[in-house]
Amino acid sequence: MPPMVNIEPTTLGFAASGRLCNAEALPSVQDGRLLYEGPHFVTEPPGLVRFTNSTGARLDCRGGGTPPVDVRWTLDSGDPVAYVPGVRESLPNGSLLFAPFPARLFRRDVHGGRYRCVVSSSLGRVVSRTVRLRPVVLQSYRVTARDGRAPPGQSALLTCHVPDHVRATVQITSWSVNGALNVYPTLMGDDKYHMLPSGELIVRDVTHDDVMGRYLCRTVHMMTDEHVISERLATVIVEEPKPAGRPPRIVASSAALHVRETDDAVLFCVGHASPTAPVISWSRRRSLAADQPAVEPLGAGGDVTPAGALLVIRSARPRHTGWYSCRAESPAGHATADVFLEVQMILSVSVSPARVTVNRGGTFRLTCTAPRPASLLWLRDGARIDTGRHLSVAQEMTSDLQVSRLEGADMKQSAQGMYQCFASSKFDSVQAAVQVLLGDSHPVLLEKFINHTVPPFAAISLRCVANASPTPQISWLLDGYPLSPDHRRLIGQYVSANNDVISHVNISSAMPVDGGWITCRAANRFGAVQHAARLNIYGKPQVRPMPEVLAVAGESLLLTCSVGGHPIHEITWSQDGRRLPVGREQRVFANGSLLLERVQKSSSGGGYSCTARGAGDATSTGNVNVKVIVPPSIRPFLLGNFSAGERAQVLCFIKSGDSPLTLTWLRDGRPAGRP
Questions:
Q1: Which of 190, 288, 455, 555 has its CA 20 to 30 A from that of 665?
Q2: pLDDT digits over 412-445, tens only?
Q3: Can you name the CATH fold of 350-438?
Q4: Strand 355-358 vs strand 350-352: parallel, antiparallel, or unpaired?
């Protein structure tokens, strides 16, 4: 059996890089526990950034956590963002800077790219939502007011044409009528002139006098605040009435309209008929399922209000997204037009709990909630989670929520990290994070070494891998005594990305004296685990010097003869020249260990000698001194009954025991003096 000697490990702190940490860099301690705060965003960049080539842009990203975090930028693909001189640069404060540039130096892969900010530490990493850049290369532009047509007594629609290359950044602000009247957008109205929020101008009850009207539209560039007025004057053209009996026709209707949640939306549908204007009604197209009507008529009341040629939706919600139909009807027939409304929801996401600690082998559940119809995705340390035996994801829906539940089983060190849930739509994404920690656990040896028998001068490498929380410290023993490095023996240790502690002993040119029982011991404050194997190196026996051993009176002690060389045929023990054992309280095992049972100070202390015999009767002898100490014994004491306010005295008398002694008072099992 391998030797067993109780030796307290030295506690050291190791960072994820494997370098020895300075104590000042370690997390704070509370109630004996290390407090870690996973990486998180203090400032997360927005999902969409518009900028002009004359101003450039700066994407700000700040992170926090304990230990300190690192902030970096990557492309949406995960590749690191490279420095482009004079164009793109990562700043020391975590920001990503895009310098102003002339139009000829525009690069779509740089200025129109998609980026992510990454905040990481030894506890994991979190990634931001994708940041989409929308650069605007400043160019001059012209807007054109276009004529409207209508029969007498009906409505004409005038439009303001904005070139495609600036349409996303130019807003139509108002119309000028005959240079005297300014018309601004409103949701509803029955005045002669009505400007819609989308920029069109409706002229109602057209007469031949309207032919003399002159119309201009005004615009503003939202990035530069530049104001541009249409160059040509638009007019209203009065059409001759069509012959009676012809069905109505729809001459203009809203293009596909996109609004943000809580914004107001106005859909329009302008129809003409003869001899009078048609009656306009609105409906919403529904599912074609057999148990549901194909269309739903829309009437007054609620948040969707038909108003003749207009359909007004106040404080639009995602449920309003869909197809709407307008119907122009007269005695001669009807005409219809379909309009699509898309409402961009305001994304939000939450994950609970915000932090979870799971013991080794345990289970955990994380719940992610977002408004419908968002899609949900889980990441761990910035990488998409692969479900399998230990991780599963279940999706469910309520009337207005999308819910995703992540369940983890058989908790281990590799499952620690930062878990993120991303809620995404076609327009944006948001994320929330939760830190999953491995609870306090006893060390486990993940990798061990085997027995070796080698010739002299061979190179030897022994490797031991352990895992636990808190991170364990690995120590090495030779025949139960601490193994130290020297000019031929190197001992190294580092912590892997999975928080596995990897330690090794490398012997460059093994000699017989290096042989013996090699023990790898992993320990943290919750316990220790060890593994031993034999290293045999051919050669004559050589007993190594052995330090003094402390023994406690009344307990057992196992002594190991620290000897190298191979083969070893026999190990014998003696005390004061007498070969052991000499009684039933002494036992010598086949591996050469000496067991002393019920150690006594009077007879068990002193010098012991072990002699190893090898091939050709070659021998080697070494000595070890045993010092026996007597444990303390306290004489029992009694406490009487006292009244409140009285003084009491208690005497603790130690009737036996060797010095030095440490005295501690307890009350109800807790240190005295604590509440």
A1: 555
A2: 878 889 999 999 988 889 999 999 988 878 888 9
A3: Immunoglobulin-like (2.60.40)
A4: unpaired
